[in-house]
Amino acid sequence: MSHKKYLSFQYRLMAANNDFDYSKLQPSSVSSKPLHERAPKSQASTQPTTSSSPKVNLGKIRLDKGEQSTRINLNKSAPELLINLTWTQKEVKKSGLFGGLFSSNKGIDLDLGAYFRLIDGSQACIDALQFSKGRGGPRHKQTRQGCFDNAPYLWHTGDDRQGGAGESILVNPKFAHLIDNIVVYTYIYDNNVVWSETDAVVSIKASGQEEIEVHLGNENIQGRFVVLAHIHFNNGQIHVERKMLGFNSLPEIDKYFGWGFSYSNASK
Protein backbone atom coordinates (compact mmCIF):
# COMPACT_ATOMS: atom_id res chain seq x y z
CA MET A 1 0.00 0.00 0.00
CA SER A 2 1.34 3.39 -0.97
CA HIS A 3 2.38 5.76 1.80
CA LYS A 4 1.87 8.85 -0.37
CA LYS A 5 1.12 11.93 1.72
CA TYR A 6 -2.42 13.09 1.10
CA LEU A 7 -3.89 16.50 1.81
CA SER A 8 -6.08 16.23 4.90
CA PHE A 9 -9.10 17.91 3.36
CA GLN A 10 -9.48 15.42 0.49
CA TYR A 11 -11.75 12.49 1.26
CA ARG A 12 -13.29 9.60 -0.63
CA LEU A 13 -16.21 7.44 0.36
CA MET A 14 -15.23 3.93 1.42
CA ALA A 15 -17.37 2.01 -1.08
CA ALA A 16 -17.61 -1.78 -1.14
CA ASN A 17 -15.77 -2.12 -4.44
CA ASN A 18 -14.63 -0.21 -7.49
CA ASP A 19 -17.87 -1.03 -9.30
CA PHE A 20 -20.36 1.45 -7.93
CA ASP A 21 -22.81 -1.05 -6.43
CA TYR A 22 -25.62 0.91 -4.81
CA SER A 23 -26.97 -2.18 -3.04
CA LYS A 24 -23.76 -2.36 -0.99
CA LEU A 25 -23.49 1.27 0.03
CA GLN A 26 -23.72 2.07 3.69
CA PRO A 27 -27.45 2.43 4.42
CA SER A 28 -29.04 5.65 5.51
CA SER A 29 -29.37 6.33 9.23
CA VAL A 30 -32.68 8.12 8.72
CA SER A 31 -36.17 7.11 7.66
CA SER A 32 -36.61 5.56 4.21
CA LYS A 33 -39.63 7.78 3.59
CA PRO A 34 -39.23 10.70 1.16
CA LEU A 35 -38.05 13.87 2.86
CA HIS A 36 -41.32 15.74 2.31
CA GLU A 37 -43.27 12.91 3.98
CA ARG A 38 -41.13 12.44 7.07
CA ALA A 39 -40.56 16.14 7.88
CA PRO A 40 -42.80 17.23 10.81
CA LYS A 41 -45.15 19.86 9.45
CA SER A 42 -45.44 21.44 12.89
CA GLN A 43 -41.80 22.57 12.85
CA ALA A 44 -41.29 25.85 11.02
CA SER A 45 -37.62 25.06 10.39
CA THR A 46 -38.56 22.11 8.18
CA GLN A 47 -40.83 24.25 6.01
CA PRO A 48 -38.54 26.76 4.25
CA THR A 49 -40.35 29.93 3.32
CA THR A 50 -40.73 31.05 -0.26
CA SER A 51 -41.55 34.62 -1.16
CA SER A 52 -44.70 35.17 -3.21
CA SER A 53 -42.71 37.29 -5.66
CA PRO A 54 -39.18 35.88 -6.19
CA LYS A 55 -36.51 38.17 -7.57
CA VAL A 56 -36.37 37.60 -11.29
CA ASN A 57 -33.69 39.11 -13.51
CA LEU A 58 -33.67 38.23 -17.20
CA GLY A 59 -35.43 34.93 -16.59
CA LYS A 60 -33.33 34.06 -13.53
CA ILE A 61 -34.19 33.57 -9.87
CA ARG A 62 -31.28 34.54 -7.63
CA LEU A 63 -31.41 33.03 -4.16
CA ASP A 64 -29.77 35.27 -1.57
CA LYS A 65 -30.18 36.27 2.06
CA GLY A 66 -33.57 37.80 1.27
CA GLU A 67 -34.78 34.98 -0.96
CA GLN A 68 -33.89 31.66 0.65
CA SER A 69 -35.82 29.17 -1.48
CA THR A 70 -38.06 28.67 -4.49
CA ARG A 71 -40.00 25.99 -6.34
CA ILE A 72 -40.13 25.19 -10.03
CA ASN A 73 -41.87 22.50 -12.07
CA LEU A 74 -39.92 19.63 -13.56
CA ASN A 75 -41.01 18.35 -16.96
CA LYS A 76 -40.40 14.59 -17.28
CA SER A 77 -40.01 14.94 -21.04
CA ALA A 78 -37.19 17.47 -20.65
CA PRO A 79 -33.75 16.18 -21.69
CA GLU A 80 -32.15 16.92 -18.31
CA LEU A 81 -32.05 18.97 -15.13
CA LEU A 82 -28.69 20.76 -15.15
CA ILE A 83 -26.73 21.65 -12.01
CA ASN A 84 -23.73 23.73 -13.10
CA LEU A 85 -20.83 25.33 -11.19
CA THR A 86 -18.81 28.11 -12.84
CA TRP A 87 -16.05 30.30 -11.42
CA THR A 88 -13.49 32.88 -12.50
CA GLN A 89 -9.95 32.11 -13.61
CA LYS A 90 -8.57 35.53 -12.65
CA GLU A 91 -5.06 35.61 -11.21
CA VAL A 92 -3.87 37.62 -8.23
CA LYS A 93 -0.24 38.61 -7.75
CA LYS A 94 1.57 37.32 -4.68
CA SER A 95 2.20 39.66 -1.78
CA GLY A 96 3.88 39.25 1.58
CA LEU A 97 5.72 36.19 2.80
CA PHE A 98 3.24 33.54 1.62
CA GLY A 99 1.46 35.52 -1.07
CA GLY A 100 -2.24 35.62 -1.80
CA LEU A 101 -4.59 32.87 -2.78
CA PHE A 102 -3.45 32.87 -6.41
CA SER A 103 -0.09 33.17 -8.12
CA SER A 104 0.76 34.33 -11.62
CA ASN A 105 0.82 30.75 -12.91
CA LYS A 106 -1.98 29.26 -10.86
CA GLY A 107 -5.69 29.90 -11.07
CA ILE A 108 -8.67 28.65 -9.13
CA ASP A 109 -9.58 24.97 -9.09
CA LEU A 110 -13.05 24.37 -7.70
CA ASP A 111 -14.94 21.09 -7.73
CA LEU A 112 -18.65 20.44 -7.84
CA GLY A 113 -20.06 17.67 -5.70
CA ALA A 114 -23.44 16.32 -4.72
CA TYR A 115 -24.87 14.03 -2.11
CA PHE A 116 -27.93 12.17 -3.36
CA ARG A 117 -30.55 10.07 -1.64
CA LEU A 118 -33.04 7.97 -3.56
CA ILE A 119 -36.55 7.08 -2.40
CA ASP A 120 -35.43 3.49 -1.67
CA GLY A 121 -32.79 4.77 0.78
CA SER A 122 -29.73 4.38 -1.50
CA GLN A 123 -27.30 7.25 -1.00
CA ALA A 124 -23.79 8.35 -1.93
CA CYS A 125 -21.66 11.38 -2.83
CA ILE A 126 -20.43 12.14 -6.33
CA ASP A 127 -17.48 14.46 -6.97
CA ALA A 128 -14.08 14.42 -8.67
CA LEU A 129 -12.45 12.58 -5.77
CA GLN A 130 -15.04 9.80 -5.83
CA PHE A 131 -14.52 8.97 -9.51
CA SER A 132 -10.82 9.88 -9.85
CA LYS A 133 -8.12 7.41 -10.93
CA GLY A 134 -10.30 5.53 -13.43
CA ARG A 135 -13.32 5.03 -11.20
CA GLY A 136 -15.63 7.05 -13.44
CA GLY A 137 -17.27 6.39 -16.76
CA PRO A 138 -19.72 7.56 -19.44
CA ARG A 139 -23.23 8.74 -18.58
CA HIS A 140 -24.89 5.45 -19.56
CA LYS A 141 -22.73 3.23 -17.32
CA GLN A 142 -23.06 2.85 -13.55
CA THR A 143 -19.79 4.03 -12.00
CA ARG A 144 -18.72 6.29 -9.16
CA GLN A 145 -19.39 9.15 -11.56
CA GLY A 146 -23.08 8.23 -11.41
CA CYS A 147 -25.37 7.10 -14.21
CA PHE A 148 -28.01 8.97 -16.20
CA ASP A 149 -30.18 6.07 -17.38
CA ASN A 150 -30.08 3.88 -14.26
CA ALA A 151 -29.71 4.47 -10.52
CA PRO A 152 -28.81 7.02 -9.25
CA TYR A 153 -30.27 8.84 -12.33
CA LEU A 154 -27.67 11.61 -12.11
CA TRP A 155 -24.22 11.87 -13.68
CA HIS A 156 -21.25 14.18 -13.12
CA THR A 157 -19.85 15.45 -16.44
CA GLY A 158 -16.25 15.34 -15.20
CA ASP A 159 -13.47 17.30 -13.52
CA ASP A 160 -12.72 20.77 -14.92
CA ARG A 161 -9.41 22.23 -13.72
CA GLN A 162 -9.54 25.30 -15.95
CA GLY A 163 -12.84 26.92 -14.93
CA GLY A 164 -14.08 27.39 -18.49
CA ALA A 165 -17.52 25.83 -18.81
CA GLY A 166 -17.27 24.72 -15.19
CA GLU A 167 -18.51 21.41 -13.85
CA SER A 168 -22.01 20.01 -14.18
CA ILE A 169 -24.25 17.29 -12.82
CA LEU A 170 -27.07 16.06 -15.07
CA VAL A 171 -30.26 14.72 -13.46
CA ASN A 172 -32.66 12.58 -15.50
CA PRO A 173 -36.16 14.13 -15.11
CA LYS A 174 -37.77 10.87 -16.24
CA PHE A 175 -36.77 9.29 -12.92
CA ALA A 176 -37.16 12.33 -10.68
CA HIS A 177 -39.92 10.55 -8.76
CA LEU A 178 -37.29 8.07 -7.56
CA ILE A 179 -35.03 10.80 -6.11
CA ASP A 180 -35.60 12.13 -2.59
CA ASN A 181 -33.08 14.96 -2.30
CA ILE A 182 -29.72 16.26 -3.52
CA VAL A 183 -27.26 18.37 -1.49
CA VAL A 184 -25.01 20.48 -3.76
CA TYR A 185 -21.54 21.38 -2.48
CA THR A 186 -18.24 22.74 -3.79
CA TYR A 187 -14.68 22.60 -2.50
CA ILE A 188 -11.37 24.27 -3.21
CA TYR A 189 -7.80 22.92 -3.07
CA ASP A 190 -5.96 26.05 -2.00
CA ASN A 191 -5.01 26.33 1.66
CA ASN A 192 -5.70 30.07 1.89
CA VAL A 193 -9.37 30.08 1.00
CA VAL A 194 -10.94 33.33 -0.15
CA TRP A 195 -14.30 32.29 -1.50
CA SER A 196 -15.28 35.85 -2.33
CA GLU A 197 -12.53 35.93 -4.99
CA THR A 198 -13.84 32.87 -6.84
CA ASP A 199 -16.99 34.52 -8.26
CA ALA A 200 -18.47 31.03 -8.07
CA VAL A 201 -22.08 30.53 -9.16
CA VAL A 202 -24.23 27.41 -9.05
CA SER A 203 -27.02 27.39 -11.61
CA ILE A 204 -29.97 24.99 -11.59
CA LYS A 205 -31.70 24.82 -14.97
CA ALA A 206 -34.89 22.98 -15.87
CA SER A 207 -36.33 23.13 -19.38
CA GLY A 208 -39.02 25.80 -19.74
CA GLN A 209 -38.43 27.19 -16.23
CA GLU A 210 -36.57 30.17 -14.85
CA GLU A 211 -32.94 29.48 -14.07
CA ILE A 212 -32.06 29.41 -10.37
CA GLU A 213 -28.73 30.89 -9.26
CA VAL A 214 -26.83 30.75 -5.98
CA HIS A 215 -23.79 33.09 -5.83
CA LEU A 216 -20.70 32.69 -3.65
CA GLY A 217 -19.08 35.99 -4.57
CA ASN A 218 -20.16 38.18 -1.65
CA GLU A 219 -20.16 35.51 1.05
CA ASN A 220 -17.79 35.55 4.02
CA ILE A 221 -17.55 31.79 4.41
CA GLN A 222 -14.79 29.87 6.20
CA GLY A 223 -13.75 26.35 5.27
CA ARG A 224 -12.65 24.46 2.18
CA PHE A 225 -16.11 23.01 1.52
CA VAL A 226 -19.32 24.97 1.03
CA VAL A 227 -22.82 23.51 0.87
CA LEU A 228 -24.60 25.77 -1.59
CA ALA A 229 -28.06 24.32 -2.04
CA HIS A 230 -30.43 21.56 -0.99
CA ILE A 231 -32.80 20.27 -3.69
CA HIS A 232 -35.95 18.41 -2.66
CA PHE A 233 -37.97 16.41 -5.20
CA ASN A 234 -41.75 16.27 -4.70
CA ASN A 235 -44.63 15.44 -7.07
CA GLY A 236 -43.17 16.87 -10.26
CA GLN A 237 -41.60 19.88 -8.56
CA ILE A 238 -38.18 20.66 -7.16
CA HIS A 239 -37.79 22.83 -4.08
CA VAL A 240 -34.39 24.54 -4.00
CA GLU A 241 -33.07 25.87 -0.68
CA ARG A 242 -30.06 28.18 -0.46
CA LYS A 243 -27.67 26.97 2.29
CA MET A 244 -24.23 28.68 2.24
CA LEU A 245 -22.68 26.53 4.98
CA GLY A 246 -18.88 26.31 5.35
CA PHE A 247 -17.00 23.17 6.44
CA ASN A 248 -13.40 21.96 6.52
CA SER A 249 -14.04 18.45 5.20
CA LEU A 250 -16.62 16.14 3.68
CA PRO A 251 -16.91 14.16 6.94
CA GLU A 252 -17.92 17.41 8.67
CA ILE A 253 -20.73 17.88 6.14
CA ASP A 254 -21.72 14.25 6.69
CA LYS A 255 -21.94 14.79 10.44
CA TYR A 256 -24.05 17.94 10.01
CA PHE A 257 -26.60 16.25 7.74
CA GLY A 258 -26.41 12.80 9.36
CA TRP A 259 -25.57 10.78 6.26
CA GLY A 260 -23.59 8.13 8.16
CA PHE A 261 -20.81 7.33 5.66
CA SER A 262 -17.24 6.24 6.37
CA TYR A 263 -14.32 7.98 4.62
CA SER A 264 -10.67 7.46 3.75
CA ASN A 265 -7.99 9.99 2.76
CA ALA A 266 -7.60 10.37 -0.98
CA SER A 267 -6.30 12.52 -3.83
CA LYS A 268 -7.32 12.91 -7.44
Q: Can you describe this structure?
A:
- By secondary structure, the chain is mainly β.
- The chain has a domain at 60-90 and 108-257: Sandwich (Lipoxygenase-1), CATH 2.60.60.30.
- 4% of the residues lie in helices and 32% in strands.
- It is built from two helices and 15 strands.
- A seven-stranded mixed sheet has the order 2-12-11-4-9-8-7, with no helix packed on it.
- A hairpin with a 6-residue loop joins strand 7 (146-147) and strand 8.
- The model is unreliable at 1-10, 15-20, 23-58, 92-98 and 100-105 (pLDDT under 50).
- Residues 26-58 are annotated as: Disordered.
- Residues 41-55 have a biased composition (Low complexity).
- InterPro entries: TerD (IPR003325).
The radius of gyration is 18 Å
Helix content: under 10%
Number of helices: 2
Give a count of the beta strands, DSSP E runs of length 2 or more.
15
- Low-confidence sequence ranges: 1-10, 15-20, 23-58, 92-98, 100-105
Instruction: Report the end-to-end length measured between terminal Cα atoms.
Output: 17 Å
CATH superfamily label of the domain at 60-90 and 108-257: sav2460 like domains
Order of helices and strands: EHEEEEEEEEEEEEEHE
Q: Biggest sheet, strands in spatial order?
A: 2-12-11-4-9-8-7
Largest sheet data? 7 strands, mixed
The top-level CATH class of the domain at 60-90 and 108-257 is Mainly Beta
CATH architectural label of the domain at 60-90 and 108-257: Sandwich
Name the overall outline: globular
Strand content: 25-35%
The CATH topology of the domain at 60-90 and 108-257 comes to Lipoxygenase-1
Structural class: mainly beta
Please tell me the overall pLDDT.
Answer: 77
